[in-house]
Amino acid sequence: MEEIKLMKGNEAVAIAAVRSGCDGYFGYPITPQSEILETLMAEKPWETTGMIVLQAESEVASINMVYGGASCGKRVMTSSSSPGISLMSEGLSYIAGAELPCVIVNVQRGGPGLGTIQPSQGDYFQAVKAAGHGDFDLIVLAPSSVQEMYDFVYDAFDLAFKYRNPVLILSDGAIGQMMEKVVIRPQTARKTNDEIIEECGSWAVTGKRGRTRNISTSVELDSVEQEKFNEKLQAKYKTIRETEVRFEEINCEDADFVIVAYGLCARISSKVMEMGREEGIKIGLLRPITLLPFPTERLNELSKRVKGFLVVEMNAGQMVQDVRLSVTTDVPVEHYGRMGGIIPAPSETFEALKRFINKLK
Amino acid sequence: MMKEELIIAGFGGQGVLSMGKILAYSGVIQDLEVSWMPSYGPEMRGGTANVMVMISDKPISSPVVHEFDTAIILNQQSMDKFESMVKPGGALIYDENGIVKAPTRSDIDIYTIDAVAETVKMGNSKMFNTLILGGYLKVRPSIAIESVFMALKRSLPERAWKLLPDNEKAIKRGMEIIVKR
Amino acid sequence: MAGLKVEIKKENLVYKRTELLTDNTMHYCPGCSHGTINKLVAEVVAELGIEESTIGITPVGCSAFAYNYIDIDWIQAAHGRACAVASAVKRLHPEKMVFTYQGDGDLAAIGTGESIHACNRGENITIIYVNNATYGMTGGQMSPTTLMGMKTTTSPQGRDSSLHGYPFKIADMVAHLDGVSYVTRQSVHTAAATRKAKKALKKAFEKSLANKGVSFIEFVATCSSGWKMSPVASNKWLEDNMLQAYPVGDLKDI
């Protein structure tokens, strides 16, 4: 039965995991995302759906537990916040290298180092450019509401299994800690072992009953073979870029200026858009939902008729580089950001936009 | 159109976050859009707890704002920070207990509620935030008191339902003791 | 050779190739213990009749490629993380036999945390720990279990406790943990030792299948290339030195 509940973004991730038929969650406490593990432990899904929940001794262990579970063709996930995701880099690379499906949630906080427990988008580069060593891509989804924290767990598992690729939900401390209404879907049954063998039998490690053995590995010492594998991966990423780009566009049809922002900054920017429209400034908003693949083509189309892009982020200017790479015209692209766990207020962001517009006059 | 952009700010332990949660929950019961954002954002740190609550009949764009329709202020630090952030024509509610520098703005409605003293009379210090909530409901009647009662019931575990009558009394009492300055 | 098969009558057959071993040529060096231990694993799995429900986790190191030799499902883990991988696999497949196969660099250096915590949680897995006191695959560097005075490429003057600390007796350590039910130390440097080791391995697997918590089996092993000795000299050196520091026998059996 569909229900509406008031809950935190972190709680929504946990409930979505159970309801979507996730088989296993492995995690380690870190602020501001510990409610995910706490909620799962309180829910006790092992008594209802049979989902297992395990508090690991570190993020390194968590991601390698995910590697093990994913190798079995199970729907498994972990979550952490920025410093913990750094610890998972090695494991993410192995998961990508073994072509395994899984879901990772990063509820970002400010850095570098131990930094702050307040929200940030400082891990954009890490998520889309350098999640680990070697040539590999994650698929990166950016929720901007508690409802999307819930929904994207489902979407992330679907994408992960469609492409046998790790999918990262890149959120932040504000979306994780805030409460909003969430529509909760009816329980989806977990896949049975037979269903997993039916769907993933060509690669999943389930015991070799009735078939030749499967080996989950990322090692290939023959360079010729390794390059062939790299080319196969790149072909997969190309397909993903061609078919999985998702974004939301508001008021871009007649816009003179387009704000590009994701996650919490998209919410703030949508308020800025309202404020601008009230003053007669034609502002639009493009919100990338997938940060990888990035809505490059759409931004380039828009660049041919808008007067400027303002990229709003909680960092020193990261996604702005991808916007600049997307745009082939000489339309100005500017960044406005706050760091250190500071959320840019709609009013100050609007002022930044007005300064940008005045500079262009 | 109904829209309320509210901040509740005070010390940790005063029930700031839970008061915000009850209000947000009440909004959900009235089928409104809500957001509840705890202690996050610029110039909002250091010993104090605060929560921004948005309630609206339209989708909520930003859950973070710096201009509020209403500010409920429960310590001096929060008064220093948030008095200036109330929109002209907005409301500021505070308990004079613990406030050494009273608000000075003349373009907003200022209300005081003697909640600390009332809890002493009631002999129940836990009713502090409930009294304040009652006062708020009196002066900003965007949320129906029945919705708040229902929200209280639904957000409390069943073993705590015996506390409901006291809470309901405190809300009604808060409505009586709030005064416009 | 084709005629050989018919020459041996069934009643005369005293030894045959382990059926669960694949036809792949082993990459292990002459005199290395891994080949024998791989074979023991294959024999035990086959004897227990669990080849279709066994999942092995290989490490990084020489035994990473054990999956080429034993015909079961395998997962190759990141360096040191085999016990974390195995913990998840066993919890998601409680009915399966799950074991790790790790060297001393993998289990007792980079993977100490994962190993100790899997033991402490009492995961129902068998940990096969092959201790040859050196990093074989990377060319004979010092490992945590390298003996005092032993020369390696990273302890060219010999292991010195003031520089490198002491040989790490991790089996003794995990024996103290409540999640562990069976800890034994074995070797395969003689036929007699190998027979004993096989019995111990079988017992370890049986305990895992009965969900008795962690079975931890250490094989004190040779690395003739890393030690820069002939196979025969390696076995002698193992007996005279390794077994003095790491004596064989059960450390815990409950």
The appropriate CATH architecture of the largest domain in chain A is: 3-Layer(aba) Sandwich
Q: Span between N and C termini of chain B?
A: 28 Å
User: How would you describe the oligomerization state of the chains in this entry?
Assistant: heterotrimer
Count of beta strands of chain A: 15
Rg of chain B, nearest Å? 15 Å
Provide a descriptive summary of the structure in words.
The complex is a heterotrimer of chains A (361), B (181) and C (254). Chain A is of the alpha/beta class. Chain A folds into 2 domains: 3-195, 3-Layer(aba) Sandwich (Rossmann fold), CATH 3.40.50.970; 248-360, Rossmann fold (3-Layer(aba) Sandwich). In chain A, 42% of the residues lie in helices and 20% in strands. Chain A has 14 helices and 15 strands. In chain A, the strands form 3 sheets. Chain A has a 7-stranded mixed β-sheet with strand order 3-2-4-5-7-6-13, sandwiched between helices. In chain A, helix 1 packs across helix 2 (35-43), helix 1 (9-19) crosses helix 7 (146-163) and helix 11 crosses helix 14 (346-360). The radius of gyration of chain A is 21 Å and the shape is globular. Chain A starts with a strand and ends with a helix. In chain A, 57% of the residues are buried. Chain B has one domain (3-180): Pyruvate-ferredoxin Oxidoreductase, domain 3. In chain B, 36% of the residues lie in helices and 25% in strands. Chain B contains 6 helices and 7 strands. Chain B has helices at residues 16-29, 76-82, 115-122, 128-139, 145-155, 164-177; strands spanning 3-11, 33-38, 48-56, 68-73, 86-94, 109-112, 179-180. A 7-stranded mixed β-sheet of chain B has the order 2-3-1-4-5-6-7, with helices on both faces. In chain B, helix 2 links the parallel strand 4 (68-73) and strand 5. The longest helix of chain B is centred in the first third of the chain and has 14 residues, at 16-29. In chain B, 49% of the residues are buried. The mean pLDDT of chain B is 92. Chain C has 254 residues and is α/β, with parallel strands linked by helices. Chain C has a single domain (29-145, 161-253), classed as 3-Layer(aba) Sandwich (Rossmann fold). Chain C has 10 helices and 9 strands. Chain C has helices at 4-7, 34-48, 82-92, 104-110, 112-121, 161-164, 170-174, 191-209, 224-227, 231-245, and strands at 54-58, 73-76, 97-103, 126-131, 134-135, 141-142, 180-187, 214-220, 249-253. A 7-stranded mixed β-sheet of chain C has the order 2-1-3-4-8-7-9, with helices on both faces. In chain C, strand 5 (134-135) and strand 6 form a beta hairpin. In chain C, helix 2 (34-48) packs across helix 8, helix 3 runs parallel beside helix 5 (112-121) and helix 4 (104-110) packs across helix 5 (112-121). The radius of gyration of chain C is 18 Å and the shape is globular. Chain C starts with a helix and ends with a strand. Chain A binds chain C through residues 23-24, 26, 52, 54, 56-58, 60-62, 64-69, 71-72, 74, 76, 90-91, 94, 98, 193, 205-210, 213-219, and chain C through 51-55, 57, 64, 67, 71-78, 81, 84-89, 91-93, 96, 113-114, 117.
